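User: Hey, my collaborator sent me this sequence without any context and asked if I could get a structure. I don't really work with proteins. Can you help?
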Amino acid sequence: MELKDEKPFYFKTSGRAVKIWGGESISNPNIAILEMVKNAWDADATDVKVIFENLKDGKSKLIIRDNGSGMTQEEFDGKWMTAATDDKVTSPITKKFKRPKLGSKGVARFALENLSGTTTVMSKPEGESRGFTVTFDWNKYKELGSLLEKVENKSQSFQKNKEETGLEIILEPLNEKWDLEKTIGLKMDIESIIPPYAGPSRFSVEMICQDFPQIEGISLENTLLKLATFKVISELQKDGTVIHKFLSGKTVLAYLKEKKPKYTCGPLQFEYYFFYRGPSEYQEKELDKKVQEELNNFLDDWGGIKIYRDGFRVKPYGDPRNDWLELNNLRIDDPTLIPGNEQLFGFIKTNKKDNPELKDTTTREGLIENEAFKHLRDFCTESIRFFKYSRKSIEKKRQPAKAKGKTEKIQHIKRLPKAEIVTPAPKILLNFANRYPEGFYSKLESELNRAYIHRLPNATLLLARKMIENLLYNILRKRFGTEKEDVWWDEKNKRILGFGPMVQNLRSCKKDFKHDEASINKFLDLVGPFLTEANKNAHYVMEYLDNIEQIDKLKIEDMVDLLLTVRENLK
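Assistant: No problem. I've predicted the 3D structure and written it out in structure-token form, which is a compact way to encode the shape of the chain:
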């Protein structure tokens, strides 16, 4: 049989694909809006506004506006208009703030079709004197026989100042009625994509809705976390080492470290808080009735275990009634010790770089349930078992408060059942291993903690001085570099400035840290007494601390925490 070359065939895409990829694949309209917020993160925006207009008069409109870098017409054509690009694979880090990019599939924009009749994108590219708009009439894509690549989307350009940057997405009219309940739901979703433990640096999201001003009062009050009876921190390290810590307040009551077969989901950290939802004989202090009610409302809205990757929430894990770890099934056999989903508030911290096997589904609604996801579940279940045995040992040693008439100090756990050995953890001063900018800080922390554990107050103080002084130098050098070298460098003596002068320079330059001025002010309030004590101890042999309790009064942990927060926001 003789074969003759003919005209090749190419795949064509029906205009209906917009509906299939968008509205039909992404069931929750909030997902599409959250994806636009994440795109603003990828564009190095520092401010995002989600604005609802005219919800009550039938001409409703939604605007998502950011101050990021915007897109040129070429970038818009190559990225926005091309589905499933490899941009975030080939360029995974943003140009300006070096953020890990969060988008990956490029199909969530089609879900905007499910929100409104038309979508207008206004782009103000950075450094350009002209911007442009593109309008998508989604009805054109529904016409019989239309091909995706043949549908025209009207574009216009306009004059702008080069300083104006950003992207604005205008959806009008909205297809569905947005009442107070739906708007509050979106508000909570927007708040929840930024983790409670630390918001992404230089990034704020605000929702504005004049029709429903009630939404302005909704926020995640982290002060309620302080009411937790117990807290667990479980860490999976890169080499497969697993560390579990069981705490009451800041006191570590149980500690377990062991080497496990290497999980394919790590490294990562799992942190969760356990609450009694009513009076308990094991509760050291009964809560005021109003406070208990507020706490229960908090757990109803925010309870469960959430997943955060690169600082953003992965939906739907931890949504109300989303018990993805099946805790309520686990507790059927032992309801007195295993926590229910509605008794916990927790989060898992991961990132794409270190956890490449934890992958989004195509619809961006959850993670693919592959081997890595199974290992993630196994690791979390192992942590819950650690909680169970730790709680059992502690509550066994705690006499009911009513029977005693007074509070008894919790004792350390000494032993758990086979393969569940937990050793008492000595009280340490610092525990910031995962937050230091360079590796040598972790070694310094270990040395400092050893001095503290062995109750050597003067050695502890000198090492703490070294830690705080060097973190301060690290911050000033990172922020000002060679442009303002005298802030951190003594040119005359060719060495780093002394601790005191650097503190003074931080005080005079604090307005240059506009996103962290509050943290810096707190640090400056604490560092004065510490600096006085540390200098006396360093320069005068006859001046020394008598006991380790004097160290606790110097708020060393708080100062290191504040400096690390400032340093993290300089990325």
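In plain terms: Residues 23 and 114 are 5 Å apart (CA to CA). You can pass these tokens on to your collaborator as they are.
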